[in-house]
Write a structure and sequence with these properties.
- This protein is mainly alpha-helical.
- The protein has three domains: 90 residues, Fumarase C, Chain B, domain 1, CATH 1.10.275; 253 residues, Fumarase/aspartase (Central domain) (Fumarase C, Chain A, domain 2), CATH 1.20.200.10; 57 residues, Orthogonal Bundle (Ribonucleotide Reductase Protein R1, domain 1), CATH 1.10.40.30.
- Helix 3 runs antiparallel to helix 9.
- The structure holds arginine.
- The site of arginine has 11 residues, from helix 7 and helix 13.
Length: 466
């Protein structure tokens, strides 16, 4: 049936091996509902331009809704795989012609697959950006809730730079710090979803606009875009939204990987700051004592993998002439792979977080190890009038003596008074952390319109600890 897809111009069937080589159907399957939406909107454009009659339009709409049900029921994928078509657009079109009879022949009037690819991908980007935003928001919300909980407990822990103990901070302060990039990610992803809804490419008609009087405004409204795209040639070759989504996804997973790395190190016996529950740990088939943090290691590895995938997506666009080129089929697959992987990684990260137990006594017990109080002692000297360099040198010398004598630094300060002594906005002082938490909650509330549907991936996280 695909043999003479291009009408009279070709007289022989495509080589089946090359057809298989050129097919993106498997990766495209997630696009099926969006392609149906796109086709329903094109029916609006056709009817609005009187290219099809109201009854033909109605028949096309009914057919597309039936296909929608087949997609939701899982039967469409089986059907599509049996067709030997190049992509999801061809598969849905074939089914329309099969079900709608003569009206089915009119769906593709004034339309190119280029328009469908561009529009469908934008609808997909909008949806996945919303889902990823909801996941990053949910992770941020859990971390902020944990920060609030820890603020009540006032747990102190030695914070590190260069992996060396630096200064005592509140565990709540660390949780609040960890939440920040996820708030940023949620904001960025929401903006990408908005951006993907600006310009509707449908009606571009391959590259130059259509000779048929398509009602582009009507199609644009049906799909919830702000306006029809301005320039057909640009619209069918533009992949900004897809790359922006890929970028934001990779960034969010990198953020998760950095927290994951901290938890991996904290879970080693040398640290002993966290213990991973059985649900998120794996043992060794040989060493009976092992408890390995595999989910967090995998988050770390996914981040690296996604950086490679994103780099690949960028590279695919290099030097492509600014209209549709078949290379863009690969950009589409790359965008889908990155987005789906990101949703899975973020959901897994949230689940793994649920089984992290923080060993507060261990943190408290080691908060002063490595002379983390030294900066406070120097600050006290400075406040008493000692010039800062001199204070630094005196305390440094005292640390050196204490170290060689194997004793603590003599100080009237402990980890709690160190934390409380911080004076600047954004510090680890309890009142400051309380303010940070309140501000994070306010920002999250603005990012979390209650009217928005909650994607299924987020449901587990809502129940997460904290
Ligand atoms: N299968 C292609 C894709 O998904 C669509 C090709 C459309 N245009 C063309 N002239 N071959 O990107």
């Amino acid at each position: 049936m695909t043999a003479l897809q291009w009408g009279g111009r070709f007289s022989a069937a495509a080589d089946s091996a090359l057809l298989a080589f050129g097919s993106s159907l498997e990766e495209d399957l997630v696009l099926a509902p969006f392609d149906v939406a796109c086709s329903l909107a094109h029916v609006e454009a056709l009817e609005g331009g009187a290219i099809v009659s109201p009854s033909q339009a109605e028949s096309l709409r009914a057919t597309l809704r039936a296909i929608e049900a087949e997609i939701a029921g899982g039967t469409f994928a089986v059907y599509a795989r049996g067709l030997g078509v190049e992509d999801i657009h061809g598969a849905i079109d074939a089914r329309v012609r099969e079900l709608a009879g003569s009206a089915g022949e009119w769906l593709h009037a004034g339309r190119s697959r280029n328009d469908q690819v561009a529009t469908t991908l934008l609808l997909y980007v909008r949806d996945r950006a919303h889902r990823a935003a909801a996941l990053t928001r949910a992770i941020a919300r859990v971390l902020v809730a944990c920060a609030g909980h820890e603020l009540d407990a006032q747990t102190v822990v030695a914070a590190c730079t260069h992996r060396q103990p630096a200064q005592p901070v509140l565990l709540a302060f660390i949780f609040a710090a960890w939440s920040e990039p996820f708030v940023t990610a949620a904001r960025r992803l929401a903006a990408i979803a908005d951006d993907a809804a600006r310009a509707c490419p449908l009606g571009s008609a391959a590259l130059a606009g259509s000779g048929l009087p398509l009602d582009r405004e009507r199609a644009t409204r049906a799909l919830g875009f702000a306006a029809p795209s301005r320039n057909a040639l640009h619209a069918i070759g533009n992949r900004d939204a897809a790359l922006d989504l890929a970028h934001a996804c990779v960034r969010a997973v990198i953020d998760a990987s950095r927290v994951a790395e901290e938890l991996i190190v904290w879970s080693t016996p040398a640290y002993g700051y966290v213990r991973l529950g059985d649900a998120a740990s794996t043992g060794s088939s040989l060493m009976p004592q092992k408890r390995n943090p595999d989910p967090f290691e995998l988050v770390r590895a996914h981040a690296a993998k996604l950086v490679g995938a994103y780099t690949g997506a960028l590279a695919t666009l290099c030097g492509l002439a600014p209209s549709y080129q078949r290379d863009l089929q690969i950009t589409k697959s790359q965008t889908i792979a990155i987005s789906e992987d990101t949703l899975a990684v973020l959901a897994a990260f949230g689940r793994a977080w649920e089984s992290v137990h923080f060993v507060r006594e261990r943190m408290e017990g080691t908060a002063l190890d490595g002379y983390t109080i030294a900066t406070d002692v120097a600050d006290q000297l400075v406040m008493a009038g000692t010039p800062p360099r001199e204070a630094h040198a005196r305390v440094g010398a005292e640390v050196s003596r204490a170290e060689s004598e194997g004793r603590e630094l003599d100080a009237s300060l402990d980890a709690h008074s160190s934390v409380a002594a911080k004076q600047t906005h954004g510090s680890t002082a309890p009142h400051d952390v309380r303010e940070q938490i309140a501000s994070l909650e306010r920002e999250l509330a603005t990012l979390d319109p209650s009217t928005e549907p909650v994607p299924s991936e987020v449901e587990g996280l809502r129940a997460a600890r904290g």
